[in-house]
Write a structure and sequence with these properties.
Length: 234
């Protein structure tokens, strides 16, 4: 897998095209459904036919009068900045240049501003690598250029009980050890839907998304469960 970046406003223009295509496809699906309904009801009662035909014509006219999609503008430029990645999950840009990329297997791939590729395997106690689990998000400390400290989210546990966790380490030495700072208390036995996105707030607290574990999605509405939530902690 490769990591690339784009510039200009091409992404915005693509989003406009996707929105237009989505609305147009909805019109087509509605018209198709109404036609099927007309055919089915015609066998029961011919009195409804003029009404249904009128609705079909109305939707057809609306779809025909829909505005053309906005033209693509701006220059599109794509640059590959990383390659040969095994199950990458998140990337953080080094203020001094280069990138740090997490691989779910428990390794951080660092590309320096000089073009070097460094593989940094981490020591994460009980790291659970299965399904969508493993090493997830990465956020650089404010003083990363001096301390080399990063904050991480990751899955821990086993097939019967696994959790989302949050921790930190300094990227020094051969195999940095990750200190776990917070663990989602609600256990699950599915290797999917972890969430794990991290955001540091201006007051120094952290936000972390916690997935619903798929089979536990109803717990997203339960206050006594940490699954399916946005968690805030110090």
């Amino acid at each position: 897998m490769y990591l690339s970046c784009t510039d200009d406003n091409t992404a915005y223009n693509k989003a406009q095209h996707k929105s237009y295509n989505f609305m147009l496809s909805c019109f087509v699906q509605v018209v198709d459904s109404l036609i099927d309904m007309c055919i089915a009801l015609h066998q029961r009662s011919q009195k409804l036919m003029p009404f249904l035909v009128g609705i079909v014509c109305l939707f057809g006219a609306l779809s025909a009068q829909a505005d053309d999609p906005p033209p693509l503008t701006g220059n599109f430029h794509q640059t590959q900045i990383a390659g040969y990645l095994a199950a990458p999950w998140a990337a953080a840009e080094n203020p001094l240049g280069g990138w740090l990329i997490t691989e779910r297997g428990g390794t951080i791939i660092e590309y320096t501003n000089a073009g070097q590729r460094l593989e940094i395997p981490l020591q994460i106690d009980q790291l659970y690598v299965a399904g969508q689990g493993g090493l997830l998000d990465i956020v650089l400390a404010d003083d990363f250029t001096e301390s080399r400290r990063v904050y991480l989210s990751f899955a821990v546990g086993d097939d019967s009980e696994n959790y989302l966790a949050f921790g930190t380490t300094q990227l020094v030495g051969d195999k940095p050890e990750v200190q776990r700072l917070f663990t989602v208390k609600t256990a699950k036995d599915t290797p999917v839907h972890y969430g794990g996105r991290l955001l540091k707030m201006a007051d120094g607290t952290w936000l972390m998304t916690s997935g619903d574990g798929f089979d536990y999605r109803e717990q997203a509405q339960q206050k006594n469960s940490m699954l399916g939530k946005v968690l805030r902690f110090n």
